[in-house]
Amino acid sequence: MTLSPTTKGYFYAFVSVLATSNVYIFSKAALGQASLPLFGLYWFAFGLLWNVLYITKTGKLKYLKKLQTNNYLILLILGLLEIGSTSFFFMAISTVSNPAIVSFIGNINPVFITILGVILLRERYNKPEIMGIALILLGAFTVSYKGGNTFSSMFMNGTQYVLYSGLFAGASAIINKKNVKKLTPAIMALSRNIFLLIFSFSMMLLLKESFFINWYSLWNIIIGSILGPFLTVIAGYQAIKYIEVSRKSILSSTKGIVVMIGAYFYFGKFPELYQIIGGLISIIGVILISFGKIIQKKKLTNLTYKN
Known about the structure:
Blueprint: H1 5-31, H2 36-57, H3 69-95, H4 99-105, H5 109-121, H6 127-144, H7 151-154, H8 159-183, H9 185-207, H10 215-242, H11 245-252, H12 255-267, H13 273-306
Helix pairs in contact: 1-4, 1-10, 1-11, 1-12, 2-9, 2-10, 3-8, 3-9, 4-12, 4-13, 5-8, 6-13, 8-10, 9-10, 11-13
């Protein structure tokens, strides 16, 4: 049976959501007993191994020979953006007690993508997108709010890392979408792992950290690296190759629910009721932004068809 491109896109998006959700769980477990540079070194070393095996087995290594000078420049920019996005993401995972909360706050990423789309691509807002942005901001505020008299004490520690990560990820998502068909998902995933591994190794040397890691952390890293640097990235890039980023975002927004269930069974932790409500509000916001972009694209298609 031959699947349509749209069906393939949704399938890869679903696989990406499941894999991403488990990354939150296994990375949190590993970071409980390993420093961030040590974690990154092993995480991306295994991730690179899985990627090399994949592109060798599937014959995608030949695409490296076809890369032009400007392609390497794009990979360099993406690599630097991924270093920023991924570093802050795992800093948030390490800092915040429940990974589900990180996932809920992380729903703010489409806001950055939408804003950057307006600035860089001159896209326009529509009403669903404006409502979606408002709901996401309200949801993120609800999830991260802890009280306090000053701005710095108002939100839980780690919220800032999620926001920094989202800003880098937003810029990366726009560049990815414009170049994924030209560079191929496998090459982009390979490049990402190489940059992050070099960065982690450099931080290990700079901070003079020990390369020893215990078996508990290593076991969680092995499982997580299959799901994260390999499966999540490959499936994610494949998804936006067949469907719009906005459609993928609809499925991706639900990962917080999967992470919440996984965190309960793995760590015995459950978010507070107000945090769950905030998370659900942010999910609705992501869906509204995604539908807004779909509506906008249909209008542009109809105008083009009429002309």
